[in-house]
């Protein structure tokens, strides 16, 4: 979603010359640094993408993610991306018992799957005796 927004607005802002370039840089900052932190803290640990995938960020103790936890985990995404294609993040996920990337390890956060509380499950079948 973010890539689509950047592509569409970037194309339009390119027509504005230097002013458009400045606005484009501000857009990049907002989408890559502010958006994930604001959504994780203010929207119950879920960005739009996490909500679509039924994921949520929480603190390792199960409490809602804090401002500092969200800022740290998102700043360290840059380290996770190194040396290429999330190499360090992948290795960290394979080594960590909870499969966390470096940002989550340092921030003390977890990304968890959230079940649908409105989902009704069928009662289990019990054999008749």
The parts where pLDDT drops under 50 for at least 5 residues are none
| Integer-rounded radius of gyration | 19 Å
Strand order of the largest sheet: 1-2
- Shape by Cα distribution: extended
Structural class label: mainly alpha
Alpha carbon gap, first and last residue: 55 Å
User: If helices are DSSP runs of H or I spanning 4 or more residues, what is the number of helices?
Assistant: 7
Helix content: 55-70%
Percent strand equals 5-15%
Order of helices and strands: HHHEHHHHE
Overall mean pLDDT stands at: 92
How is the main sheet built? 2 strands, antiparallel
SS elements, strand count: 2
Describe the structure.
The model has no long low-confidence stretch (mean pLDDT 92). This protein starts with a helix and ends in a 16-residue tail after the last strand. It is extended. It has a two-stranded antiparallel ribbon. It has helices at 2-14, 17-42, 48-52, 67-75, 77-81, 87-95, 102-107; strands at residues 55-59, 109-113. α1 packs antiparallel against α2 and α2 (17-42) crosses α4. Helices cover 57% and strands 8% of the residues. The chain is built from seven helices and two strands. It is mainly alpha-helical.
